[in-house]
Design goal:
Bound molecules: NADP nicotinamide-adenine-dinucleotide phosphate
Number of helices: 10
Helix content: 40-55%
Strand content: 5-15%
Distance between the termini: 39 Å
CATH superfamily: NAD(P)-binding Rossmann-like Domain
CATH class: Alpha Beta
Shape: globular
Number of strands: 7
Largest sheet: 7 strands, parallel
Strand order of the largest sheet: 3-2-1-4-5-6-7
Structural class: alpha/beta
């Protein structure tokens, strides 16, 4: 997928680009020729990631930015334009999440997650989108999760926000196609990134074993594997794909756990 320098001359903003999937996407785009802007709250994350991305030969700008704050996002886009003159790719990857029963979720907890995922994706899309409209080209990729449409226990804040981002994806694709802007969503499967495995309680081998049993491909995915798909969706090879959601979860959301176990039991007896 993709030639080595297929992002040469392009400028990409990756939110949450200092850790986990965001870092892998920034590395993938950088190693394929893009200048990369990584933005999140914690400068330590950004500085460490920038070193790794620069080692791939890419130009990197780190911007301290809380995507919940519209003014900070405005600054992020301004700094990108000042440094690189344009923005070709925006990856809305930043997120926060924690497991909580819906009846125990406080307004603060709700606002924290919805603020990052839904508001943050909107502020970034809106402000980078205005630059893309001026340019007459651009690509926005929103990282969501399959529970945006399946729902899942313990994540009403995140599922609601990701569903909103999916609606945003389709709506902006319909509105901004005329400006040469593509907008897509990518729903990765389970990746044992340090943030997710701690917050979503799958940091033990036992939990991961249970998860693997629910996945038809029988393995978790990795940020590196998903980053290649993200880069494809942002590349010219996906030039006619817009308003779509691409799922890379090893078939997990299709596989009803009860039926999968029953099927495995029957298959074992065959
Ligand atoms: P992660 O390493 O915890 O990534 C989250 C990133 O978001 C961090 O770099 C964090 O950086 C940044 N962030 C958090 N709050 C922010 C804010 N207010 N403003 C700016 N940046 C902020 O987790 P991950 O697993 O790589 O997740 C990446 C994406 O994949 C997320 O959208 C997640 O929902 C999605 N996803 C993950 C999985 C999975 O199993 N891991 C499955 C499906 C979907 P700072 O702390 O420096 O701010």
């Amino acid at each position: 997928m993709g030639s080595v320098e297929d992002f040469a001359g392009q400028v990409a903003i990756v939110t949450g680009g200092g850790t986990g999937l965001g870092k892998s996407i920034a590395l993938e785009l950088g190693s394929r020729g893009a200048s990369v802007v990584i933005a999140s709250r914690n400068e330590e994350h950004l500085i460490a990631a920038a070193k790794d991305i620069e080692a791939k030969g890419a130009e990197v700008l780190t911007v301290s930015c809380d995507v919940r704050e519209a003014q900070q996002v405005e600054e992020l886009v301004k700094k990108t334009i000042n440094s690189f003159g344009k923005v070709d790719v925006l990856v809305n990857n930043a997120a926060g999440n924690f497991i909580v029963p819906a009846e125990k979720l406080t307004p603060n907890g709700w606002n924290a997650v919805v603020g990052i995922v839904l508001n943050g994706s909107w502020y970034c899309s809106s402000m980078a989108g205005q630059e893309m409209i001026k340019q007459g080209s651009g690509c926005i990729l929103n990282i969501i999760a399959t529970y945006a449409w399946t729902g899942a226990p313990g994540v009403v804040h995140s599922a609601s926000a990701k569903a909103g981002v999916l609606a945003m994806t389709r709506t902006l694709a319909a509105e901004w196609g005329r400006y040469g802007i593509r907008v897509n969503a990518l729903a990765p499967g389970v990746m044992a990134t340090s943030g997710a495995s701690k917050n979503l309680m799958f940091d033990s081998e036992k939990a991961q074993e249970m998860l693997r049993a629910q996945i038809p491909l029988r393995r978790l995915t990795t940020p590196e594997e998903i980053a290649k798909l993200a880069a494809f969706l942002c590349s010219n090879e996906a030039s006619y794909i817009t308003g779509d959601v691409v799922t890379a979860d090893g078939g997990r959301w299709l596989a009803d756990k009860g039926f999968l176990e029953l099927y495995d039991l029957q298959a074992a007896g065959r």
